Amino acid sequence: MTTTSVTQTITETPSKKSRLAIKQEHLAGLDPEWISLWNTYGADMIRADEVSIEEFRKDPAKYSFTYPTCAGPDVFHVEDMNVPVTKPTGEVAVRIYSPKGKGPFPVHVNFHGGGWVLGGLKSEAAWCRHMCNKANIKVVDVDYRMAPEFPFPTSIYDCWDVVKWIITNGDSMNIDHSSVSIGGLSAGGQMSAVLAHFARDEDIKLKLHMMIVPATDMRYCRKGLQLDKSNCPYQSVHLFHDAVWGPLGREQWFLKYWLGDSIEEQEAALADWRCTPVLAPNFRNLAPAHIITAEFDLERDEGEFYGELLRKGGNKVTVKRYTGVPHAFGHYNHPERGLKKSFEYIEDTSKLLRDVHYGV
Description:
Layout lengths: L31 H11 L10 H6 L18 E10 L2 E10 L6 E7 L13 H11 L2 E6 L10 H15 L6 E11 L1 H15 L6 E5 L22 H6 L7 H11 L4 H8 L18 E8 L3 H13 L4 E10 L13 H19 L2
Parallel strand pairs: 3-4, 3-5, 5-6, 6-7, 7-8
Antiparallel strand pairs: 1-2, 2-4
């Protein structure tokens, strides 16, 4: 399931008054809906990566582009629980969305995006609610611990502990623990990639691991690295490293808090396959995979390259590139002011999850 780029002609130009207006070189082929949304509501904002994490936490809404988002539809039942985790010992919250019916229900475990630094149970709540209703499955959203207080690899093991806890406690939660899928967006996609390897190695069967605009190789983001073709093979990085909605500097800001602020710390972490999944030692016998990429995303090519590694390992994998849209296009799903591509993404992923869990 692969798409190709569609070139569009855009005649409008960004306002010179807007500090973060879309650059002329990025207009061709860009979704006109996104151009309008960003230049109207995002071009004068201050992005989170332009301030410290301490400043961001004082007023997260001030540094977030939330206009095209929404809370999502009602679902039959929503419950919050705390789950024990081990590395280090503690607890994380999960939010469980349940459809109406007798069950037991298949379950999808979601790991939100936000660079391992930002986000929470509101980040993909609308998507989780849509999946619950449209796919008729339970969805467990994981509020894993984040950096800088909990740096790499804590968030990965938090998510893994939750997956195993769900399988162990499935009966009491009205979950069919033989029908489990996992997935996430951006940082969550990276963790989904890693956890599929963990599952294979511990003989845990997953129906699917879904990677949505995943960060599978961020070595080009290392502190002090001067980006060029010799240290970054991904064309999308060179095309969109200065895209105003998600530049390379934003990725470097995330790594500063997740991996540490020294070159040595970042080099050591980025050489670890749990941080850089393209370096995984064994790609055989992994769960079926679906990878979603966005055309105007600097992480596009590393995600698609990871799909090729999965194919070469003999795994079942599908890939879909959504044309004309940026990295976080899936978030912009407000029914009146969202992106058509976000609604398409909701329909695609809900059908996929229903198919893998119910075999229709």
